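User: quick one
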Amino acid sequence: MFLRRQPEGFVSGEEISRQLAVSRTAVWKHIQSLKADGYQINAHPHLGYQLLAVPDVLYPEEIRSDLGTGWLGTRICHYEKVDSTNRVARELAEAGAAEGTVVIAEVQENGKGRLGRYWVSPRGGVWLSLVLCPPVAPVEAPCITLLSAVAVVKAVRQVTGLAAGIKWPNDVLVNGKKVCGILTEMKSELDAINYLIAGIGVNVNLTAGDFPEELQHPATSLMLELGREVSRVNLVQELLRQFEELYGQLMQEGFTRIRNQWKELSVTLNREVKVTFLKEAYRGQAVDIDADGALLVQSADGQLKRFCAGDVTLRDGLP
Ligand code: BT5
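Assistant: Done. Structure below.
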């Protein structure tokens, strides 16, 4: 990635071979393999090499360049195609992968939503899973889902300027449509988490044609809302930075600060909602989330009900 830092001009093969302490032939071979990976490189017989364009692929080297995180993303496993990054991350975790390992795929052929639902994952999105070992009790795991949503919203706002918000518990919306879903899975014992996988899917550069008919209204992508493509590398980098920062806050200070940020970014609170849980629907006003991340809903007769899980429909979408 020596060339990347000098996009303006040429770098001679001699200089690269000196800096990297490899032969000129090795430099030439490396340039050929970069070209094969989609990097556009201008090779001039006298001036040397010039980087013209990097491919829109989430190569670990691109993500790690200027990433600036401490532990998150130290190891990034990138795949062209997998069934589900959560499945791969679980397998790596079982094999002892370190906390902070990131699994990314360009395409998921069997992307998972919650409760066995599907997740549409064609090329152009960010489909990733983080391997975590939070030293908290399993009942506190929902906090990590809420934390993930805060991290996504902050990253989306930072990189695109779009006014993203959170719909409890795990959806990120832009203009009322879903751009991101989060699937948290864990392996735990009664009082300790062995590992937790935070699976995050963001519709970044998806076109309307990428969504099946039934998702045309409820789903969107950052590109569709912004009217231009978004750098997926920048988004992943910002997401990892925000996640690491928030995770640090959670470990040091507990959930309160994350909860406050979640509340600020929420599009659920103070709205009329329908919560569906185990096929039962409950209507009321979403008034708060509690210290465990559960949603508190007040019905018209003043009764307060607490939901640890469920699906929320906001008032505009209420039948
Ligand atoms: C979610 O479930 O929103 C969690 C999605 C998590 C996806 C990530 S991608 C990386 C990692 N690897 C995985 O295999 N999964 C994670 P849920 O709240 O149950 O929403 C699922 C519902 O959202 C589906 O039933 C569809 O109605 C809708 N949906 C499917 N694909 C979508 C998409 N790309 N964008 C918006 N909505 C979608």
